[in-house]
Write a structure and sequence with these properties.
Length: 378
C-alpha cells in the first residue's frame, strides 16, 4: 500500500510486505509503521516474559515510556482524570507508560500487548496520539478510535502468533545487509549475581532490559514498580544517556511534590498545557517570560522550590533499577545513577574497568547484576 509519506513529507514511500500488520483505520506514514513495529515487539516481549499486560508510548522509533499493569498513584489519577473505580489492567499499563514522560508522549504511537478494551478506549479518547497497534479490539473500539484526529488516527491490528524470519535484511544506499534476527529470550535465570535483588527487583531489571533492547542505542532505562521513570535513547556517550534518563526520573518524582501537584489553574489551559507547566516547574528553570505567563494562568502563588527543597524531596526517591543495553565503561555512570534513588543496576559485563564499576556500586550501596547479552538496537 502507498504510505502517506516517507521519513519526511517530501519522500514517497510504500509498504510492500504486509507481514503481521494490517491497517484498520487511518493512512499511516513510514515513521508510523516503524514505530508500530518496534513498539509491538517491545510490549509482546514484555508480556511474554513477565506474564502481565504491557504498554508502550513510542516517539521517533524509541519508547518515551513503558509499563506493565499496576497501581496508579494519586498524581497519575489526577493527571489522567481517573476519578472513580480502578481501570482495567491494560488501561493502567498504558497510563503508567504515558506518565513516564508525558511531554514527550504527546502525539505518540501506542502499543499494547492485549486486545484493546473499553476502559482503554475511554483513556485514549482523551489523549493526543497518532495511532495504536494491538492484537485485537473490543466491539466498537475501532469505530470510536477511528474518529480521533478527524479520522487520521492510525489503527494497526497485529497477529500475535506471527513468527518473524530468522534473518533480517536491509537495503541502504544500494547496500544490502543481512543478519541473524535477535531472538534470544530473556528470563530471570539470565540475571547473574542477582542474590541481593528481590523478585520485584528482578521484574524491574527484566522490564528495563527489554525496554533498552527496543530503544535506539546507547540506551539506559530507570525502572521502579513495573514502570519506567526515565529513558535515555540514542546518545553517543553512555554517561550522557545515564544523565538524560536520570533527569527525566527526577522530573517524574518532582511532579509528585505537593507544591507542584497541587498547582491550580484558571479555566482555559488544556490538560496537556497544565501538565506541561507542572513539568516545567519540576524542571526548575522557568524563564522570566514563562513565569509571567504561568502567573496569568495559575490560581494563587506559583510554587518555587529552593535548591534545598528539591534536594530533600529527591532524596526520598528510592528502590530504582537502572538497565543498560551494553557494558558500563566508566564508574561515572554509577555515580550519576546514585543521585536518582538507584539501588540496583543491571548491565552486560565486558568493561576493562569492571572492577571500578563494581567498587562504585559498593560505595553507593547499589547491587550490580550481570545481564547475559549486549542489546544494541539500530
Amino acid at each position: 500500500m502507498q504510505l502517506r509519506y516517507g521519513v519526511n513529507p517530501h519522500q514517497e514511500a510504500a509498504w510492500t510486505e504486509p507481514g503481521p500488520l494490517s491497517v484498520r483505520s487511518g493512512h499511516p506514514s513510514y515513521v508510523n509503521l516503524l514505530d508500530a513495529i518496534n513498539a509491538w515487539r517491545l510490549v509482546h516481549e514484555a508480556r511474554t516474559t513477565l506474564g502481565t499486560p504491557a504498554a508502550a508510548s513510542f516517539k521517533h522509533v524509541s519508547p518515551a515510556g513503558v509499563a506493565i499493569a499496576g497501581p496508579l498513584d494519586e498524581v497519575m489519577r489526577a493527571t489522567w482524570r481517573i476519578t472513580t473505580g480502578e481501570p482495567s489492567p491494560l488501561a493502567t499499563a498504558y497510563l503508567r507508560a504515558r506518565d513516564t514522560d508525558p511531554k514527550s508522549s504527546f502525539g505518540d504511537m501506542i502499543a499494547v500487548s492485549d486486545p484493546v478494551d473499553d476502559d482503554l478506549v475511554e483513556v485514549l479518547i482523551g489523549v493526543v496520539a497518532d495511532g495504536i497497534v494491538a492484537p485485537g479490539f473490543s466491539d466498537g473500539a475501532v469505530r470510536r478510535l477511528a474518529q480521533k484526529k478527524r479520522g487520521q488516527f492510525v489503527i494497526f491490528a497485529v497477529d500475535p502468533t506471527f513468527a518473524p524470519p530468522t534473518r533480517e535484511r536491509r537495503e541502504i544506499f544500494g547496500v544490502t545487509v543481512v543478519q541473524e534476527a535477535d531472538q534470544r529470550r530473556l528470563t530471570a535465570d539470565d540475571l547473574k549475581n542477582a542474590d541481593k535483588t528481590s523478585e520485584a527487583g528482578q521484574r524491574d531489571a527484566l522490564l528495563g532490559l527489554i525496554t533498552a533492547r527496543h530503544t535506539q542505542s546507547n540506551s539506559v532505562a530507570y525502572v521502579r514498580d513495573g514502570m519506567t521513570l526515565g529513558i535515555g535513547a540514542g546518545q553517543q556517550s553512555r554517561v550522557d544517556c545515564t544523565r538524560l534518563a536520570g533527569g527525566k526520573t527526577d522530573v517524574w518524582w518532582l511532579r509528585r511534590h505537593p507544591a507542584i501537584s497541587a498547582l491550580a489553574f484558571r479555566r482555559g489551559p488544556s490538560r496537556q498545557d497544565r501538565l506541561n507547566w507542572r513539568i516545567r516547574l519540576a524542571e526548575g528553570d522557568l524563564t522570566a517570560e514563562e513565569r509571567s505567563t504561568l502567573a496569568a494562568l495559575a490560581i494563587g502563588e506559583i510554587p518555587s522550590l529552593s535548591t534545598d527543597d528539591r534536594a530533600a524531596w529527591l532524596a526520598r526517591l528510592d528502590g530504582v533499577t537502572v538497565a543498560h543495553d551494553a557494558f558500563i565503561p566508566f564508574r561515572d555512570n554509577v555515580d550519576h545513577a546514585a543521585r536518582h534513588g538507584v539501588r540496583h543496576i543491571v548491565a552486560p559485563s565486558g568493561s576493562v574497568r569492571s572492577d571500578q564499576v563494581a567498587q562504585a556500586c559498593r560505595e553507593h550501596g547499589i547491587s550490580l547484576t550481570e545481564a547475559p547479552i549486549r542489546l544494541f538496537h539500530h
